[in-house]
Amino acid sequence: MIISGIGRGRLAVAAAAVAVVAAAGCSSSKSGPATSTTGGTGGPTGATASSATPSADAATVAAIKNAYAKFFAPDTPEQVSLGLLQNGAAFKATIEKQGQGGYAQKSSAKVSAVSLTSADVAKVVYTIYVGNQPMLADQPGFAVRENGTWQVAEHTFCQLLTLENSAPAECQTPAGMNPPK
To answer: Which end of the chain has fewer CB atoms at under 10 Å, N or C?
Structure first.
């Protein structure tokens, strides 16, 4: 692995590989139109609304979009990438392995919608691109805020790895198997 430059690409490889698997005939779940950037309750697991769900302000939305974009960008250094993934250090070997694929240098991600479910958890809708081609569109995912930093949720990364049949043992934790609350 190249120390800098391809760290994030490794995660992009996972996403791109998932995208290729999805494009090759595996079905991917699509949610309805996702244009909201504020509010929102519940989640893909059928969680019920709490008394008051915070709204995502512009700075929060930008921070979450930035976390996803950098996490999946091929030129993000590995240490930065690990810091943008919930429990990232546990996935170091997985990220290195994913970065060895050809899609790593061409992949990116873009968040199209953000809605907070709590002050430190957001539902997102994102698309994985290979080059300019959307390969895994409108995917539901999560972002979590830990120590003041928004990160890609471990659960979301594990979902991508599961789609490509390469989920490591680290995904068998509660954070890997269950959406954040």
So the answer is: C
